[in-house]
Amino acid sequence: MKSRIASIVESAHFHRLVLALILLNAVIVGLETYDEVRRHYGAVLYLADRIILYLFALELALRLAAAGAGAFFRSGWNIFDLAIVAASFLPASQFFTVARLFRILRVLRAVSVMPDLQRLVAALLRSLPSLGHIGALLALLIYVYAAVGTSLFGPYAPEHFGTLHQSVLTLFSVITLEGWIEVMESVLPHAPMAWIYFISFILLGTFVAMNFFVGVIVNNLQSAAIEERDDLGEIRAALARVEARLPLGRNDGNASGERERPPRGP
Fold it and tell me: Quick one: 148 and 64 in the same domain?
């Protein structure tokens, strides 16, 4: 029975069905944000949401039965799915905001059923220490430029560089390349060399620091892919060693492995 359930849970059709339910749940969550749709079809959407929730619960029960409690709870993705689905059963009348939040978070279950997304999330988590160091460097860069900008441009553009925290917010917008030309033009009439300040900050903050972020994530993705290939290679090598040690049957032998004697003549 367990092997039959496992074959169902691990089948491609089962994964596609779960992914389709998650996407349908995402559509329902999106439709509920429109007052007109909720007013006319609120009961239908609620019924569909309840059905999907019970199907998710059935899916988790099947996965638990197939893997066993020990293996099931060793997977962080299984615990994540269980927490999201279990929290969705909270009574909406008492915890409306929390219940609605977990209904929205059910969309994130797409990560647990798509291996490529799992690898991406794992790479992001592995990148956090390095990203923290880059973030600290970027924060230091913004702080230094904000202090300089406040001193140089504060009297000319107080709406952008009047105080230190205003300068920090301005540089956050500049680093995204959103409206930085307007900010620069507001101080150029009073400080003709201000372009050096803005261009150098964009080069250091956007094209260098941001590329560090991307480089760290890509490097961890490549490392994860290499480790996955190595693990797969080790598994295949272990299977090959096991198969090599297994006794192979012979067509010219009997069940005990002894060669049959030719029949004696008369």
Answer: no
The yes-or-no verdict on residue 264 having pLDDT over 70 is: no
| Residues whose CB falls within 8 Å of the CB of residue 247, separated by 6 or more in sequence, listed in order | 257
Cα–Cα dist 177/22, whole Å: 36
What CA–CA distance (Å, rounded) separates 63 from 17? 14
What pLDDT is recorded for position 168?
A: 93
259 forms beta bridges with: 253
**Distance separating alpha carbons of residues 188 and 184, to the nearest angstrom:** 6
Environment class of 159 (CB within 10 Å of its CB; exposed 0-12, middle 13-18, buried 19+): exposed
- Binning pLDDT at 50, 70 and 90, where does residue 141 land? very high
Q: Which amino acid is at 62?
A: L
Q: Which tokens belong to 46?
A: 């609620």
User: Which CATH number covers residue 95?
Assistant: 1.20.120.350
**Residue-number span of the structural domain to which 72 is assigned:** 2-113
Statement: residue 246 has pLDDT above 90: no
Residue among 113, 142, 94, 106 at smallest CA distance from 27: 106
Pick the more confident residue, 221 or 151.
Answer: 151
In 97-146, which ranges are E strands? none
